[in-house]
Amino acid sequence: MLRYLQTDWQSAGGRERVQLLSVIRYKIKVGYCFELIPLFIIFISTNLNVMDSEILKAVSNIVQRAERMIDDAKIQSTYEEIGVIPLLNNRNNQIIYGRRGTGKTHVFKYLASELKVGNDIVVYVDCRTLSSASSFEDSCPSRKYRSHAIFRDIIGEIEDTVKQYIALNAPNDSALALDALEQMIKATSIKESKKRDARKTEVRGRTTTDNVGMKFSIPQLTLDFDSKVEEESAAQTTTSYRMEEHEKLVFPDINYKARELVQHLKVNIYVLLDEWSSIPLDVQPFLADCINKSFFAIPHFVFKIAALEYRSNFTIVMQNNLHIGFELGSDISSNLDLDDYFVFDKNPDSITAIFAGILSKHIKSELPEGYLDKIKVTSTQQVINYLFSNRAVFKELVRASEGVPRDMINIFNLAYFDAQKQNKSKIDKPIILSAARDWFEKDKFTNIDDSLNYVLQRIVTEVIGNRKARSFLIRRELERNDVIQRLFDARVIHFVKRGYADKDNPGVRYNIYTLDYGTYVDLLKTAKKPDGYLPLDENMSSRDIVVPFDDKRSIRRIILTEEMLKLN
């Protein structure tokens, strides 16, 4: 018993620890305290882990959003490569998709640091900060006018970055480059006057004649009466003219001067447009059209766009089959989706290793230099072992995050400080379950409105309550259903597999989604908890599986219809 507990005190259950305490009391009583020294050392060392003041400060200081990292060194040190950068480090125009929290901004920031090594110019644009993107209401000017205003904002970001590059590097053709840049800017604001008709219609007025006497004589009857006669003049229309002045974009000139600019500078200019989906949906195709006409024909101008797939609209088809915007696959590729890289069911071990690297690097980045070496925690696995009671517990944290790195960090943060409050040396499974439930209730659940929540509860009742599962199918054609998109964006349902074929329904394709880990854990505390699974309990063994895994056989008959997805 003593030897077993010396090697794995933390994983010991309540019964084993009670037995250990009995052994300790006996050893003290008979005077064999020296035999307890190795155990006390292990006990003290394990109980310092979560209580370690430096680790505590590091966890508290973890920067959860890449845009808040103040220097390139931290961006690089906290980035965990998943195979995306080699696919983006090229001169192809590309779109990268991914839900909020999957790391699109971090990827862009890291990519920017890599591109700068080659002495290229990188223009990072957070579309949320473009003043014209949010300054218009639906009732304001046309989509074309609004898109031009946002485009000028992007051009302004390019101008600022290029001028800074020239100031720092002083290339030989600086004067020619600055002149080309100035002419490119001018081509975005050419004054144009248009004559507008202003027609005015007037009515001359009315005339009325009163007391017109009239007399009719009929045998045995004479009638006298007065009448009023109204006359209306003909309408008179006058026409006047007024001049209106607009700013227009001259795309051939923009393109020509942009081409001159890169020729003089002898560099590639990469424009990274982050948070594309913050631009109004109806304006996006027109903005894309401006970018396409101005820059896509120039090999040394490269655009990368980070967006939410179902909140993006890159092209529309007008009359006469005229396309406005980007033609996906032709003008710009769109085959990168970060959500596909983090699906736990595809490769649990690989995903667990990736998330271990993410967590370890974020903690290490906030610690004093060499601190982990000092406490002899030198590898990613040792960091995980230091903080979690065993690897299975960390794996449960990865499952709870449902493929969203930011959610993993937030759930870990809650779990870490909960372990502290409970005076536990390491994070165990009941703490992970509790933290996942808290994160679901405090973040995800609060971000959906009542009508959407009604649909979510309907799905939870059907899938978890009635079918005793977490995953479900929807027909492929419903993937753009507004409710599905909103639930997916809110991270309360998660994508598992696209294009699943059921042999019982040949020719029909389905997408597989799963309900958030937190929805299941949240249900365990209610009267609607599924039969056959233990309730969330402080005395529950960490070895018990609470949130079930689904297989394809268990979900083949769980198909949600369009009717179930309707809002009240």
What does this structure look like?
The chain is α/β, with parallel strands linked by helices. Among the domains are: 1-47; 83-192 and 246-340, 3-Layer(aba) Sandwich (Rossmann fold); 448-565, no CATH class. It is built from 23 helices and 14 strands. The protein has helices spanning 2-7, 14-30, 37-47, 53-61, 72-77, 85-88, 104-117, 131-134, 143-169, 174-186, 251-265, 284-295, 338-341, 348-365, 371-374, 380-387, 391-401, 405-421, 429-444, 450-466, 482-489, 517-523, 552-555, and strands at 94-97, 121-126, 190-203, 206-218, 221-232, 235-248, 269-274, 301-307, 315-317, 323-325, 333-337, 471-475, 493-501, 509-515. The strands form five sheets. Strands 2-7-8-1-11 form a five-stranded parallel sheet. It has a three-stranded antiparallel sheet with strand order 12-14-13. It has a two-stranded antiparallel ribbon with strand order 3-6. α12 links the parallel β7 (269-274) and β8. α10 runs antiparallel to α11 and α14 (348-365) packs across α16 (380-387). The longest helix has 27 residues, at 143-169. The chain is globular. 33% of the residues are buried. Mean pLDDT is 81; it is low at 1-11, 41-48, 214-227 and 531-543.
Write the layout of secondary structure elements.
Layout: H1 2-7, H2 14-30, H3 37-47, H4 53-61, H5 72-77, H6 85-88, E1 94-97, H7 104-117, E2 121-126, H8 131-134, H9 143-169, H10 174-186, E3 190-203, E4 206-218, E5 221-232, E6 235-248, H11 251-265, E7 269-274, H12 284-295, E8 301-307, E9 315-317, E10 323-325, E11 333-337, H13 338-341, H14 348-365, H15 371-374, H16 380-387, H17 391-401, H18 405-421, H19 429-444, H20 450-466, E12 471-475, H21 482-489, E13 493-501, E14 509-515, H22 517-523, H23 552-555
Parallel strand pairs: 1-8, 1-11, 2-7, 7-8
Antiparallel strand pairs: 3-6, 4-5, 9-10, 12-14, 13-14
Helix pairs in contact: 9-10, 9-12, 10-11, 11-12, 14-16, 17-18, 17-19, 18-19, 19-22
